Amino acid sequence: MSDSFAHRHVPSEYSEQVAEAVARLRLGDHRATYRPARPSPAVQRSDLVIMSVLLAVLVSAGIALARMSPAFLLVFLPPVAVLLLFRILRERHNRSTRKNAGLHLHEHGLVVVVGGKLRALRWDTMTVHQNIGRYHTFGRSNRVKHAYTLRDGEGQEITLREGFPNPEDWGPRIQQAVTEAQLADALIALRAGKTMPFGSFLVSRSGVAAGRKQVSWSQVQGVHTRQGLVRVEAAGKPTSLTGDPVWMFPNLQLFAALVEQLRR
């Protein structure tokens, strides 16, 4: 693949590895980039204070014992030197990984770089599992946590969390991109007679089935989530078809889009 192709589709600040992945998988034009959140000033100050106190204790102990016997310096100087070297090397590593890390969304897929590791996946072969939950402490709602697990046909798997800011933005964008990339082919396959599994649901040209229950498209009213479960509501049925928990459900937005198209 030519360098000119990669140059047309990636921002200039991309590393060589990210640009190569975009070109190799033909991910197309850049859409958005999300950089990992930097540690807060309070966390950085806390880390510095802990390290400073530890060094002060070691140095003070070394000086006190050296007065008793200079030989003690041979015992205390190496740990102090190792601790300082560890601090310097860790800070260099953290700066390097923060500089290159990012979630890069493109026209036909994404590239994720975190912890020095790069993963690239295309929308048209991706399966998305989302897990969004509100956590409570002492009966009060504290925060919403997001986790999106992405898999491709070759077995690659990535889980994205709040390490990348604004998951309420990039999460739906990923779901929408996967839906747009796979919806047309899925409709063609279903209308040609293929049956497609979505968790415990089976979708076919005639309707939706879950276990021994089945409803025709004329009865289907839509897809809903209730009490953490994915459900298909049907007219004239006392209960809905109940599927898997939302966090286990593959490509929930694609499933909902297919149902909406086929029930018309």
Provide keyphrases for this structure.
264 residues; alpha+beta; PH-domain like; 4-stranded antiparallel β-sheet; 6 helices; 14 strands
Q: Can you tell me the CATH topology of the largest domain?
A: PH-domain like
Q: In this structure, how is the largest beta sheet organized?
A: 4 strands, antiparallel
Instruction: Give, in order, the helices and strands.
Output: HHEHHEEEEEEHEEEEEEEH
Q: What is the total domain count?
A: 3
Q: How far is the N terminus from the C terminus? A: 43 Å
How confident overall, as mean pLDDT?
A: 82
Give the second-level CATH assignment, the architecture of the largest domain: Roll
Main sheet strand line-up: 1-2-3-4
Class derived from helix and strand content? alpha+beta
Inertia-based shape: elongated
Q: Which segments are poorly predicted (pLDDT under 50) over 5 or more consecutive residues?
A: 1-8
- Strand portion: 25-35%
> What is the helix content?
40-55%
Number of helices: 6
Structure description:
The chain has 264 residues and is of the alpha+beta class. It folds into 3 domains: 30-36 and 101-179, PH-domain like, CATH 2.30.29; 41-98, no CATH class; 195-262, no CATH class. The protein has helices at residues 3-9, 16-24, 41-68, 72-100, 167-191, 252-262; strands at 30-34, 102-106, 109-114, 117-122, 127-137, 140-151, 157-160, 196-198, 201-203, 207-210, 213-216, 220-226, 229-234, 241-245. The protein has a 4-stranded antiparallel beta sheet, sandwiched between helices. Strands 8-9-10-11 form a 4-stranded antiparallel beta sheet, covered by helices on one side. A hairpin with a 2-residue loop joins strand 3 and strand 4 (117-122). Helix 1 crosses helix 2, helix 3 (41-68) packs antiparallel against helix 4 (72-100) and helix 5 crosses helix 6. The longest helix has 29 residues, at 72-100.
